[in-house]
Structures are given as C-alpha cells and as structure tokens.
TrEMBL record:
Gene3D superfamilies assigned: 3.40.50.20, ATP-grasp fold, A domain, ATP-grasp fold, B domain
Binding positions for ATP per the UniProt entry: 104, 145, 150-155, 185-188, 193
Domain ATP-grasp: 109-301
Full protein name: Formate-dependent phosphoribosylglycinamide formyltransferase
Protein family according to the UniProt entry: Belongs to the PurK/PurT family.
EC numbers, comma separated: 6.3.1.21
C-alpha cells in the first residue's frame, strides 16, 4: 500500500496532511504557486504552478500519474477534475465535491434547493442593480460575498442603502476567477457557529462525526477554535443530519468541514470544505484519537475508521504576522513552550504579511474543564509570541 498523492495547495493544512501520510509510508508531491510552501518542506517532491491554469494542471498530473489528487485549496481549475476521474485517478473526496465548493453558488443551490437544508435567505447578483434588488429581497442587514472567494475576501455587511455600492465594489475587488458574481444573504443573528467535521468512508462503512468545533471569526479568518463546543442534543442531531445529506450528495470518501450557524430558530447550513478545515487544527491538541488530517488520509486510503473518540478538550489560537517580511522570525516561543498543557506549530512560511497566519498555539485539558477556560488560556498564550520582520 504505497500510494502516490498529488497535493494541490501546500499550506499549513497540507503540511499536516503530508506528515500524516509520511508516517504511514505514502508518497506525496506537493504543489503550490510559490516555492518552499509549508507542505513542500515535508513532501517527497514539489511543483510550482498556477493551479488555475488547466494546461499546467494537466502537465503535472500526466507527469506524476498519481493514485490520488488531494485538493487543499479552492482556487484550482477544478473543472479538469472530472477528466482526471475518468482517467482512473481518485479526486478527493470527489471531482464533484471539489468543483461544487469552489463556487458558492453550486454548493448553496445544492444545499438549499436540491436537498432542502435550512440556509439564510439568499439571492445572486452580477451587477450593482441586481444587488440592489437582491438586498430588497433578503432584507437588511445582509452579507455580500463574491461567489469565488475565501477567507472573507471581498465580503462585507450591508446595514443601510448607502452600503450597497461600497459592498458591490469591494466584492468585485475581492473576487477570484473569471466571473464577477456575488451572493447576498440575510444576516443570521446566530448565538454561535460551529464546524462539524464529517468523515465519509468507502465500502459502505458509516459516516462518522467529530465532536462540534466552536470558533470565532475576525476579518474573515478564524482566531480561536475549540472542541467540544457546547451544543444542544437537538442542534447536534439537526447538524449531523444536514452534514450527512450534503456530503453524501457530493460523494467520495474523506473528511469535510461543514459550517453551521446556531440561532434561536434552529440550525443553519452555511458552507463546507471538502477537506480538513482550518478551525479543525484544534485536533492537533490530540483532542481526538485521530486528528482531522489522519482521518482524511485514512478515509481516502479506504482504511476503516472504527470510531472517533473525544480524548480531551482543547483550543487553538492563531499566531498572526503584523508586517511584510521575506525572512520572518519569532520571539517568545520559549514562553509558550514553558506553559503547562500547551503545544504549538510554526508553519515555516517563507514570507509574512499583515494578518498572515504563521502558527498556532494549542492548549488542552481533561473533558471536565470548562471549555471557555481553555480558550482563554490558548488566547493568552498566543500573545506571548511575536512575529518579527
Ligand atoms: N449570513 C451570514 N450571517 C451572519 N454571519 C455570516 C453570514 N455569512 C457569513 N458570516 C460570517 O462570516 C464568516 C465567513 O463567511 P463564510 O461564508 O464562511 O465565508 P468564507 O468562505 O470566507 O469562510 C462566517 O464564518 C460567519 O462568521
Ligand atoms: Mg467559512
């Protein structure tokens, strides 16, 4: 069982996936748009290409002829994946899953229209005029997002008429890819939001769920995440039911990060990643018998996962850069290392820019410890590190 994997995207999530694969003797070629990306540092080989360029993708897939293609990001010419699947290469979790989730429209229509999942009321717009009528339809406040974007890029909230034009221009600037279209959705006044890591398996083995992960977002990126999040049995059952439906419709085996809002009037499906989720880095605190990267790998390789057990409670807090640098260094790591029940990762990114995620602090305790306490500790410990230029 030595499989060849081409990993498309080589950030910190890819790096942990490669490490998991290395530990059980698999071969990985890591791909990204720049050299020395985190996952490349631990892979057998690497390629530097523009992954939105279909011809470039074709070239490296033909060159390496892998058993598996594992996407780590959304910005890939995913239309090509259907062909690779026909050639007998397994796209993880499936060509459909990767292709549908690179565009908010495909996944939202699947969830809301085809599967009937509860989502925020939404409309699409390809112009400022269309956005105006979309806002009228869903009501204010509402959130505008480019269909092709991630990490909050181009995303803003409209509170009054005056914000509409700004929101349109901002979305156009933050849009990736060749089409400029936005989704405008009603603002959900949620009490909390969670990621439900969901693992689909081959060979008719059951779909498994991790304990819910809570998280807090700022500027479009997560700041802290924690597991287990406190969620009522009723909400968990609803979220699991929705996660099962949407992952089954997308097909294939692997780990998905399914995002939900928990509000007074129930659970809203928001979006999903057909791959390990950044908020799932909390599992690196050994909160579970297998972390999210190990689960993804096992599911892909058709290694049966008997069960997922919660071993302890944990939290992650991000370490962000504050300046541009092409040789970032860290101070204060000794202070982090010296804390009890604490661990950390530094991703080895070759350059920094303001707010770029450079590492993560992990804190954990037994399952009786109030989760808020662990989050506060992780947050405080993360402030002990500074990223220098
Ligand atoms: N309709 C909404 N109502 C309230 N908050 C929202 C809504 N849509 C997005 N958000 C907030 O913005 C964050 C990022 O939005 P998301 O749709 O997940 O985009 P991304 O692909 O950038 O992660 C969410 O985690 C949530 O905190
Ligand atoms: Mg999200």
């Amino acid at each position: 069982m030595n499989k060849k994997i081409v990993l498309l995207g080589s950030g910190e999530l890819g790096k942990e996936f490669v490490i998991a694969a290395q530990r059980i003797g698999q071969t990985v070629i890591a791909v990204d748009s720049y050299e020395n990306a985190p996952a490349m540092q631990v892979a057998h080989g690497f390629e530097v290409i523009n992954m939105l360029d279909g011809a470039e993708l074709d070239r490296i897939i033909a060159k390496h002829n892998p058993d598996f293609i594992v996407p780590e990001i959304e910005a890939i010419r995913t239309e090509r994946f259907y062909d690779y699947e026909k050639q007998g290469i397994t796209v993880v979790p499936s060509a459909k899953a990767a292709n549908f989730t690179m565009n908010r429209k495909a996944i939202r229509d699947l969830a809301a229209k085809e599967l009937g999942l509860k989502t925020a009321n939404y409309r699409y717009a390809t112009s400022y005029e269309e956005l105006k009528s979309g806002v009228e339809a869903v009501g204010m406040p509402c959130v505008v997002k480019p269909l092709m974007s991630s990490s909050g890029k181009g995303q803003s909230t409209i509170k009054s008429e005056d914000d509409i034009e700004k929101a349109w221009n901002y979305a156009v600037e933050g849009s990736r890819g060749d089409i400029v279209e936005v989704i405008v959705e009603a603002f959900v006044k949620f009490n909390s939001e969670i990621t439900l890591l969901t693992v689909t398996q081959n060979n008719n083995l059951p779909t498994l769920f991790c304990a819910p992960i809570g998280h807090r977002q700022e500027r479009g990126d997560y700041q802290e995440s924690w597991q287990p999040a406190r969620v009522s049995d009723k909400d968990i059952a609803e979220a699991q039911d929705m996660a099962r439906k949407v992952t089954e419709a997308l097909g294939g085996a692997g780990l998905f990060g399914v995002e939900f809002f928990l509000a007074d009037d129930g659970v809203y499906f928001s979006e999903l990643s057909p791959r390990p989720h950044d908020t799932g880095m909390v599992t690196l605190a050994n909160t579970q018998n297998f972390n999210e990267f190990e689960l993804h790998l096992r599911a892909i390789l058709s290694l049966p996962i008997f069960e997922i057990t919660q071993e302890r409670a944990g939290a992650s807090a991000v370490i962000l850069a504050s300046e541009n640098s092409d040789h970032p260094t860290f101070t204060g790591i000794e202070n982090v290392a010296g804390q009890p029940k604490t661990d950390f990762r530094l991703f080895g990114k070759p350059t920094s820019r303001p707010y770029r995620r450079m590492g993560v602090v992990l804190n954990y305790d037994n399952l009786d410890t109030p989760i808020e306490e662990i989050v506060e500790r992780a947050k405080k410990i993360a402030t002990l590190v500074t990223v220098n230029k």
